[in-house]
Amino acid sequence: SSKLSADGVAVLEDCIGFSLTKTISKVEEKLKKGSSRDCQDDDIIPSVGNEMEAETHVRFLKAKLRVMQEDLANVVFECRKKDDENQNLETRLKDAEEENTRLQRTISWQQSQAEKYKMLSQEANKRNERLQQQVITLEKVL
């Protein structure tokens, strides 16, 4: 999961230029300078009053950060998985469209062949009728 966390952070940093390390450093600097009251107003830090020391704030923030990194890594993993699935489905769709085009050509060719043989059959039937008429005529002559 640590690999996923690192990947997730890297992806987040790539996407929006956000650095978790920089954010941690800024929070730690604020806490060292004694501006922990600013942080207590944030919704990510539970309101436990002035008894909570800066070190405790940092530990809490780091723990919260680890959880968020894992969540982010899981989301990134799921996104990559969905991207792979989408790619697979796009490939299958393309293959199906190509197969459909090939089958349409085959159907078109078969229809033209059927028309050709239908015309040949009609011509053969007409010739057969003419020949039968000739046979009847010759039989009468004989």
How are the SSEs ordered, and which strands pair?
Layout: H1 2-16, H2 20-32, H3 36-40, H4 54-141
Helix pairs in contact: 1-4, 2-4
Derived structural class: mainly alpha
Major sheet details? none
DSSP E strands, number: 0
Strand content: under 5%
| Average residue pLDDT | 79
Unreliable spans: 1-5, 46-50
Helix and strand element order = HHHH
Radius of gyration, whole Å:
40 Å
State the end-to-end distance: 104 Å
Would you kindly provide a brief summary of this structure?
With 142 residues, this protein is an all-alpha fold. It has helices spanning 2-16, 20-32, 36-40, 54-141.
Description:
By secondary structure, the chain is mostly helical. It has a domain of about 60 residues. About 85% of the residues lie in helices and about 0% in strands. It has four helices and no strands. Helix 1 packs across helix 4 and helix 2 packs antiparallel against helix 4. The radius of gyration is 40 Å and the shape is rod-shaped. The N terminus is likely disordered.
Protein traits:
single chain, 142 residues, 0% strand, rod-shaped
